[in-house]
Specification:
Length: about 475
């Protein structure tokens, strides 16, 4: 309780200071970008910034279409203790003569893009141009899922984690070790370390198989915490009146330490300060991995919304530390892997997949949207003859080999319920057809002056996220 009060006081003090200083400073939009593994966070940020700097492909961003953005430039971000997002390196990877995908997100990073805007409105001629700063905060989606641990104790988390482990791949070694020990026995460091390593290996295997809800997230991205006690615990079955120095009690203590020393600082320093949020979702990848992975993604997205503090806040609430995210975009990535004729179905499927999460956010007052996008277009569309009929396909370079292929991953249904129902029922395979998805490599680019990288609806996403503030 004392820790919660301290966190609230800290947030209130910081937000009060920001509110007092705001009238004397240029306005700032803090945009959080997250998504689970392989959703395309790094490419999204790189392409968004490049297209805001060279706006030839941004007609649906009204400030760009109306030529009210006079200039856009990068400058040092305000948080000196946070790594800078390596925009130049990532853009170089995507635009090289032999382009390749940049390294994915492994830590919190930040980038500030400043936009010089022409005056608008009845009094615009009197005020002159103004500057708006866009602070983009990039963080792993696995860490976002960890915020849900703050409302759980060790026993409830263990119960859920063990239930998931019994139905997911790669848990055999962990479950075998668990079966050989007594959680109520005396604590032994070597035993707990071996159990924690087996559990971390299981989480990695589950994520590689397409499962989304894999907590604790730092078990997958440990960084400088590798081998520390806060990452050396594992879920355990319940023990009635476990002794003080038992394996169960020490795991419980370390679980609480993980929340206090890892999860809460992330929430306080980064997540609690965000104004707008985009959650990138690899819906097509989950489809290709089958109904169980698809249902797990739905549950993970619902859990993610639960840790947001969505809704519009009055100035007094912000002053008191109750800052809220007031716009959330759920973006299904890799739309370029489908012919444009199926993009509306992909967007509808994303909306249905996230219905529970979106309803929760809208009830709290936040403005939400779901759309199908491609941060970087890697394919071209074509029609081919197949089985005596013409088929809509996309063509691109296969990631890894560079071989040119045509792809038709399968027709999405007009009714998303045809996929949601079997996934919720626990089906092993899709009842009517499978969905095959090949990963494409970036295509070589030839950009004209004033053009950013090619994309699909990135300008529409930008309009929803920041257009009203421009």
């Amino acid at each position: 309780m004392i820790g919660s009060v301290t966190d609230s006081v800290w947030n209130a003090t910081r937000n009060m200071a920001e509110a007092v200083a705001a009238p004397f400073q240029d306005p700032v939009i803090r945009l959080g970008v997250t998504g689970l593994s392989r959703a395309g966070k790094t490419v999204f940020i790189t392409s968004l910034v490049a297209n805001l700097m060279d706006r030839g492909r941004m007609p649906q961003l009204r400030a760009a279409a109306d030529e009210r953005i006079l200039a856009a430039w990068l400058q040092p971000q305000p948080d000196d203790a946070v790594a800078r997002f390596a925009f130049e390196d990532h853009l170089a990877a995507l635009t090289a003569p032999e382009p390749h995908w940049p390294e994915g997100t492994r830590r919190v990073a930040e980038l500030r893009l400043s936009l010089r805007l022409a005056p608008s409105g009845l009094l615009g001629g009197l005020s002159g141009p103004r500057t708006v700063h866009l602070d983009i905060v990039d963080y792993p989606g696995e860490w976002l899922l960890d915020l849900g641990l703050l409302d759980k104790d060790f026993a409830s988390w263990s119960e859920r984690a063990l239930a998931k482990a019994r139905t997911r791949p790669g848990a055999e070694e962990f479950l075998a070790r668990l079966g050989r020990l007594d959680p109520g026995a005396g604590f032994d460091e070597v035993t707990l370390r071996g159990l924690a390593e087996a559990y971390a290996a299981h989480l990695q295997a589950a994520r590689d198989a397409g499962f989304s809800d894999c907590t604790p997230g730092r078990f997958l991205l440990p960084g400088d915490l590798q081998g520390s006690p806060v990452l050396t615990f594992a879920p355990l079955p319940p023990v009635a009146d476990a002794p003080r120095r038992s394996l169960w009690r020490e795991s419980e203590r370390r679980f609480e330490a993980y929340k206090r020393l890892v999860v809460k600082p992330f929430f306080r320093e980064h997540f609690a300060r965000i104004d707008r949020q985009v959650v990138l979702v690899d819906v097509l990848g989950a489809l290709a991995r089958g109904p169980r992975a698809f249902e797990d993604l739905r549950e993970a997205m619902a859990d993610i919304l639960g840790v947001f503090n969505p809704g519009s806040s009055a100035w007094l609430a912000r002053l008191l530390g109750q800052k809220r995210i007031d716009r959330i975009l759920f973006a299904a990535t890799k739309a370029d892997h489908l012919h444009h004729g199926q993009h509306a179905r992909l967007a509808a499927l994303t909306e249905a997949l996230l219905r529970e999460a979106r309803d929760r956010a809208e009830f709290a007052g936040a403005d939400t949207a779901a759309m199908a996008i491609a941060s970087l277009r890697t394919t071209v569309e074509d029609r081919v003859s197949h089985g005596g009929e013409m088929l809509d396909v996309v063509r691109g370079r296969l990631d890894g080999t560079g071989r040119q292929v045509a792809q038709h991953p399968g027709d999405l249904p007009e009714d998303p319920g045809r996929l949601l129902a079997p996934a919720r029922a626990g089906a092993e395979d899709w009842p009517l057809q499978g969905y095959e998805l090949r990963e494409f490599a970036p295509a070589p680019l030839t950009l004209r002056p004033g053009e950013g990288p090619p994309h699909i609806r990135l300008d529409k996403a930008a309009e929803f996220l920041i257009g009203d503030r421009l």
